[in-house]
Amino acid sequence: MKTTYHKANTRGKADHGWLKSQHSFSFANYHNPERMGFGKLRVLNDDIVQPNMGFGKHPHQNMEIISIPLSGALSHKDTMDNKREITVGEVQVMSAGTGLQHSEFNDSKTDEVSFLQLWIQPETKNVTPRYEQKKFDQTKQKNNFQTLVSPQNNIIVDSLWIHQQAYISLGNFDEGKTINFKLQDASNGIYIFLLEGEISVANETLETRDAIGISDATTVEIQTNKKSKILVIEVPMN
C-alpha cells in the first residue's frame, strides 16, 4: 500500500473576493510540482461563491468535469443549450470532449454557494460534449457509500457516467463505524477527501477537509472517530 497524506491547510488558496477557493492540486496561480494530481484525478477545488457572483462563460476541452454542491444553488449555462440550477443532493457531469463553454453563477442575493469541482482526465479524447445532472436520494448515504459517478462501460445503478474508469462515492457515517472500502478495480487508486468529521485511514488521522491518496491496495479500512461525511474518488493511476 502506498499513501499520500494531504492536510487541509496545505492546499493552494485563492481569494478573489467574490470567490474563495482551495485547490488540492495545482490550479491557476497555484503551482506545486509535487501536487499535479492523483492518477487521472487532475483537479479537486473546494469553492465558495458570494451572492450575485460567479464564473463567466469560459471554455473546456478533453476533460470530465464533475460538480457537487455542498450548500446553496449554482446556476449553469452552456453552449449545448443547457440552462439548469444545481442544488444540494444533485451532481453534475460534463464531458468537455471536442470543446464547450459554460458559466456558473450564484443567483442568490443573500446566500453563498459552496461546491466541489473535480476534473478527471478522460480515457478517450475528442468525444462529443455532453451534460447530465441527477438528484440523488441522500438517505442511501446513511452509513453507506452511494456511487455518484461510474464509467460508461460499467455504469453502477442510478449513477452518472463519464469517459473514464473512475468512480466517485459519497457517504455519511456515524461515529464508531468501520468501513471496508473495496475498490472496483484493483489497479486503481483512491483519493479519500473528508468533508466533515474525523476518520482513521492507513495509520493516519484525517480531520475536516484533510485527504489521503492510496494505491496498491484492493480494500481500504476506514474508521470513523466522529460522525463523518466522506468522499471517495477511485481513479486509474496510469
UniProtKB/TrEMBL annotation:
Stretches assigned to the Pirin N-terminal domain: 10-120
Enzyme kind, highest EC tier: oxidoreductase
Binding site for Fe cation: 58, 60, 102, 104
Classification via SUPFAM superfamilies: RmlC-like cupins
Cofactor: Fe cation
Binding note for cofactor: Binds 1 Fe cation per subunit.
EC number(s) reported in the record: 1.13.11.24
Gene3D superfamilies the UniProt entry points to: Jelly Rolls
Keyword match Cell cycle: no
Pfam families documented for this protein: Pirin (PF02678), Pirin_C_2 (PF17954)
A single MF term (Gene Ontology): metal ion binding
Superkingdom, natural source: Bacteria
Alphabetical keyword list: Dioxygenase, Iron, Metal-binding, Oxidoreductase
Domain Quercetin 2,3-dioxygenase C-terminal cupin: 149-235
Sequence similarity: Belongs to the pirin family.
PANTHER family: QUERCETIN 2,3-DIOXYGENASE
Protein name: Quercetin 2,3-dioxygenase
Lineage: Bacteria, Pseudomonadati, Bacteroidota, Flavobacteriia, Flavobacteriales
